[in-house]
Design a protein that fits this description.
The strands form five sheets. An eight-stranded mixed beta sheet has the order 6-9-10-22-21-20-17-11, sandwiched between helices. The protein has a five-stranded mixed barrel with strand order 1-2-3-5-4. The protein has a five-stranded antiparallel beta sheet with strand order 12-13-16-14-15, with helices on both faces. It has helices at about 60, 120-125, 125-130, 135-155, 195-205, 240-260, 275-280, 305-315, 330-345, 365-375, 390-405, 455, 485-495, 500-515, 525-535, 565-570; strands at about 20-30, 35-40, 45-50, 70-80, 90-100, 160, 180, 190, 210-215, 230-240, 270, 295, 315-325, 350-355, 360, 385-390, 420, 425-430, 435-440, 465-470, 475-480, 520-525. The protein has 16 helices and 22 strands. The protein is α+β, with helices and mostly antiparallel strands. The model has no long low-confidence stretch (mean pLDDT about 95). It is globular, with a radius of gyration of 30 Å. The structure holds one RNA strand.
RNA sequence: GGGGUCGUAGUUCAGUUGGUUAGAACGCAUGCCUGUCACGCAUGAGGUCGCGAGUUCGAGUCUCGUCGGCCCCGCCA
């Protein structure tokens, strides 16, 4: 085999007159009788190879099919009719010899057309899908993001330290993936949901600044932005405050986004959780959408609507979304909106607008009252009002979902709206279990000024936790950790862990707090989501080489799969069917 | 666990009210073609209508179940 001279996609005018050898896949072949063009593709791009009368064995070209792997050797010449669309368009390679390195059956689809093919097929033949230029670019960017993160953090004194993949099951949080132990029958390892406790113990060990590109595993149902295994840029540091962490993360995010030529302004907006929920109905608001949720609980009383008044009397609130261009909301669109609210658990959305026949609403209301309502609340006559009446949290949730759904058409999709959401409640009440649950995780420090309220009014206590949000997607989250063993015990107790449970589940970690745990805090950023946003994709599957489907299957390898009884025997496992 | 949507040629899709031999485009094969770059022209091959039941004289079409893709709710400390 002749040595490769250059990538197909990198051959330009400087090579004119030189004899070179390139390797690649046949992207497309065009036969014109005695003249054949082969577009040869490698990871850098495509070069046109010409086979003309000077070629020794024209018949051998006939059998070369698309996606064959070949090498081509010959002289580079200037094209008489250049192709301005590609980098190599000014030149072509006149083949002197061509070697077939590997044949290909007719593929189920061609890499360049992977967008026109079902996801099912793309997953099954992922190795072909990944030949697509955009896919290649996605993984190039992913690699560079990882590199930038490593260099950036290393420059600031962070050490990359690996933590175990085979580890201990955690009692709350997501469902664990379990790995049975052969040596200790009936006992299992768990794959880490995150390296949380290990990184905290590295702080106890005195490393002060840790990071890791950590694989995490959570056995929960999937979404476009959720896979059972995913990668976090995991960070932990001692002897500092959140402000310094914010600065470090913002600087890193800035460098990461610079990779694709995007300039971002650091000093991200910081928004309390309560404000996010109140104004946007979400703890990860998409600030590209220029509308906030309004509260019209008082204002709608003038309609004397039995429905609305009934909701209000039952401690409900009337949350509202006011959007421009009421005319575009046809009967069908309004029905769709109403159905959407029902789908996500609401009773429906009430609309109010000005029509050719005057002010109208989907509830009974006097036109004059509606007109006065518009006037008093400074609502432009051509705007539509959606009302959602429910108990407050639900009303906000539903209005928030509606805001995201309807607001998308009013926003500049190219903007990057970063923000920190802070001051999360420490706990929320778990109705099913009749107890408090951690909002973040049980190692999160409560606001140190509110410790006295832990006993009297725990639900009101805020934690020192923070999420970083970009365009409505949570790209990371973290907190200050508890480094005081008594406070940690207290929080466990509030979460209704018995002493035995604490000892069994977290004993090893609580022990670490006994031997000089420094104040520390940290964060984890979702690498997959960041790369997805960077590459303009709408699913993290586009930036994970071998992803699972929505039902957690790997269509390429056929996993999960059954194993031989012998393997199960060795593990002391019997399978229920 | 729940809701929505989709599954027909290698691929993307069409397929009327249930009715003869299931179509198109691209791809593929063969032939022609010396400047193409989505080459062109001609000819041809290619179907378990996801799978299984049921209704019917007759099912791609209707019903039930099941498997799979995607989106969403729950879930995801």
């Amino acid at each position: 085999m002749l040595k490769r001279t250059q990538y197909c996609g990198k051959v330009n005018e400087e090579y004119i007159g030189k004899t070179i050898t390139v390797y690649g896949w046949v992207n497309r072949k065009r036969e014109l009788g005695g003249l054949t063009f082969i577009d040869l593709r490698d990871r850098e791009g495509i070069i046109q190879v010409v086979v003309n009368e000077s070629f020794s064995d024209p018949k051998s070209i006939k059998k070369i099919g698309n996606e064959y792997v070949i090498s081509a050797t010959g002289k580079v010449i200037a094209r008489s009719n250049p192709n301005p669309d590609i980098y190599t368009g000014k030149i072509e390679l006149v083949a002197e010899s061509i070697e077939i390195l590997s044949v290909s059956e007719v593929p189920p689809f061609y890499p360049e057309s992977n967008k026109d093919v079902s996801d099912e097929l793309r997953f099954k033949y992922r190795y072909i899908d990944l030949r697509n230029q955009q896919m290649q670019e996605n993984f190039r960017i992913r690699s560079r993001v990882a590199m930038v993160a490593r260099n950036y953090l290393a420059d600031r004194g962070f050490l990359e330290i690996e933590t175990p993949i085979l580890s201990k099951a955690t009692p709350e949080g997501a469902r664990d993936y379990l790995v049975p132990s052969r040596v200790y029958k009936g006992k299992v390892f768990a794959l880490p949901q995150s390296p949380q406790l290990f990184k905290q113990m590295l702080m106890v060990s005195g490393f002060e600044r840790y990071f890791q590109l950590a694989k995490c595993f959570r056995d929960e149902d999937l979404r476009a932005d959720r896979q059972p295994e995913f990668t976090q840029i995991d960070i932990e540091m001692s002897f500092t405050e959140p402000e310094e962490l914010f600065e470090i993360i913002e600087g890193m995010v800035k460098e990461i986004f610079a990779l694709t030529g995007k300039t971002i302004q650091t000093g991200f907006r910081i928004m309390p959780y309560d404000e996010a929920m109140n104004d946007y109905g979400s703890d990860k608001p998409d600030l590209r959408i220029p509308y906030k949720i309004k509260d019209f609980t008082e204002e709608v009383k003038r309609f004397n609507s039995a429905i609305l008044n009934g909701i209000i009397e039952n401690n409900g609130k009337i949350k509202a979304l006011v959007l421009p261009d009421a005319a575009q909301y046809s009967r069908k669109v309004l029905d769709d909106i109403n159905n959407y609210i029902k789908e996500i658990g609401g009773k429906g959305a009430i609309w109010i607008k000005n029509t050719e026949n005057g002010f109208k609403a989907s509830i009974k209301a006097e036109a004059s009252d509606i007109e006065a309502f518009y006037k008093d609340n400074n609502i432009a006559p051509d705007h539509i009002v959606f009302l959602i009446g429910e108990v407050p949290e639900k009303a906000l949730f539903l209005a928030g979902k509606l805001r995201e759904r309807l607001g998308a058409s009013f926003m500049d999709k190219n903007r990057l709206e970063f923000l920190w959401v802070v001051d999360f409640p420490m706990f929320f009440y778990n109705e099913d279990e009749q107890r408090f649950d951690s909002n973040h995780h049980p190692f999160t420090s409560p606001n140190l000024d509110e410790l006295d309220k832990l006993d009297t009014d725990p639900i009101s206590v805020k934690s020192i936790a923070y999420d970083i949000v970009l365009n409505g997607i949570e790209i990371g989250g973290g907190s200050r950790r508890i480094n005081d063993i008594e406070l940690q015990r207290k929080v466990f107790q509030l979460l209704k862990f018995s002493d035995t449970e604490i000892e069994e589940k977290f004993g090893f970690f609580v022990n670490a707090l006994r031997f000089g745990a420094p104040p520390h805090l940290g964060i984890a950023l979702g690498l997959d989501r960041i790369v997805m946003l960077l590459t303009g994709g709408d699913s993290i599957r586009e930036v994970i080489a071998f992803p699972k489907t929505t039902s957690s299957l790997c269509l390429l390898s056929g996993s999960p799969s059954e194993v031989a009884d012998k393997q199960l025997d060795e593990l002391g496992i019997q399978v229920k069917k």
